[in-house]
């Protein structure tokens, strides 16, 4: 009788533990290395014909927060910088970073899966015999580096790499069950990647590197002589701070006067 009781208790305890700690059962389900190359999906929707539209009305619709894709109930994702190479950064030089996007919630999360956007058709609708609307989903990772005395102004770095998916094809996504994660390896350069930099990078033994995941649906629609490109946000995630040592560029160090 005691054996039955102990077995039953063990089963109950095991079930309760799995409910309390779902993330502990997670695993790496996919990895993508975009340092060797990636490509943006081509546009498949032809523009307005020039013979009937001598003047085309072009428009761009910025990301509309009111049209943001509603996250599933219980969705929570976490982004982390796992490692960088070289371990110490130098201003003006390249680095590679591996980031981890983890499903820390209770709902399944879909993220774009392919670095080769040319594989996607993106067709969302047709007009006559030709498609008049298309869309695809994109997720990219940007890096920000804070240096200097107060670290108040993080600077967006130059970085490359993105993943794409066709919203009409679930197979073009990575499915993250609760607790599972995706790893991506990307390239960056320790230089300002913004059109206008608000501060300068400095050598810093206590620099702070962060990553930003930005996932959105990009749309392209042609109607008559009107052509529009739009964007609908899906999710944005900031990573936890990653401490780094930042050195001055080799050229700057060599040109500095010796004392």
Plain-language structure description:
- Residues 6-23 have low confidence and may be disordered.
- It is built from two helices and 15 strands.
- The chain is mostly beta strands and 259 residues long.
- The N and C termini lie far apart (85 Å).
- Strand 7 (123-127) and strand 8 (130-146) form a beta hairpin.
- Strands 1, 2, 3, 4, 5, 7, 8, 9, 10, 12, 13, 14 and 15 form a 13-stranded mixed β-sheet that branches. A two-stranded antiparallel ribbon has the order 6-11.
- The chain has one domain.
Chart the SSEs and their pairings.
Elements (H helix, E strand, L loop, with lengths): L1 H19 L7 E6 L23 E5 L15 E9 L3 E2 L3 E10 L5 E4 L10 E5 L2 E17 L8 E6 L1 E4 L7 E4 L4 E12 L11 E20 L2 E13 L3 E6 L2 H6 L4
Helices, by number, come to 2
Residues in β-strands, percent? over 45%
* Major beta-sheet overview: 13 strands, mixed
> What structural class do the secondary elements suggest?
mainly beta
Element-level helix/strand string: HEEEEEEEEEEEEEEEH
Shape: globular
What's the overall average pLDDT, rounded? Answer: 84
Q: Kindly report how far apart the N and C termini lie.
A: 85 Å
């Amino acid at each position: 009788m005691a054996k039955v009781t102990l077995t039953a208790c063990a089963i109950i305890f095991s079930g309760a533990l799995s409910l309390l700690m779902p993330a502990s059962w997670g695993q790496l389900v996919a990895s993508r290395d975009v340092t060797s190359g990636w490509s943006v999906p081509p546009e498949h929707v032809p523009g307005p014909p020039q013979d009937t539209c001598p003047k085309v009305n072009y428009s761009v619709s910025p990301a509309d927060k009111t049209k943001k894709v509603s996250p599933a109930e219980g969705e929570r994702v976490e982004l982390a910088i796992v490692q960088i190479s070289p371990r110490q950064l130098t201003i003006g030089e390249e680095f590679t970073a591996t980031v981890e996007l983890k499903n820390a919630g209770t709902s399944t999360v879909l993220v774009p899966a392919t670095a080769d956007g040319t594989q996607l058709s993106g067709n969302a609708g047709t007009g006559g015999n030709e498609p008049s609307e298309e869309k695809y989903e994109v997720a990219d990772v940007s890096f920000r580096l804070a240096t200097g005395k107060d670290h108040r102004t993080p600077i967006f770095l130059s970085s490359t790499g993105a993943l794409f998916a066709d919203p009409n094809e679930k197979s073009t996504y990575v499915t993250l069950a609760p607790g599972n994660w995706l790893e991506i390896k990307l390239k960056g350069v320790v230089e300002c990647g913004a059109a206008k930099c608000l501060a300068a990078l400095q050598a810093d033994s206590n620099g702070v590197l962060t990553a930003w995941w930005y996932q959105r649906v990009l749309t392209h629609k042609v109607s008559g002589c009107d052509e529009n490109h739009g964007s609908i946000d899906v999710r944005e995630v900031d990573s936890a701070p990653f401490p780094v040592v930042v050195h001055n560029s080799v050229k700057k160090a060599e040109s500095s006067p010796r004392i």
